[in-house]
Amino acid sequence: MLDRLSYSPMTTPPARRKKNTMQEQSSLMTVKELSAYLKLHPLTVRKLAQDGQLPAFKIGRQWHVKRDVLDAWIERQSLQHFGGSA
User: How far apart are the C-alpha atoms of 13 and 7, rounded to whole Å?
Assistant: First the structure.
C-alpha cells in the first residue's frame, strides 16, 4: 500500500502538478486580457501580434502572451525608448 502512494523526491506530487499547471495557464494572457492590460483595442493587439511587434504566439487561431515575458518586454522597450530606468 505504501508503494502505491509514495513518490520519488525527484517527482512532484500529483496535486502540486495540477496547481503548477493552473498557474502556468493563468500566466497566459488572451487578446482580451492583453488589450485591457495595455489599454489598447483588441484589433490593435491582434495587428501588433501579427506584425511581430508584441511577444505573442498563437495557440490554434488565438493569440496569447505570457505575462512575465510581456512585463520583461515592456521593461526593455521603455529602457530602449526612454533611455533610463523605468
Answer: 7
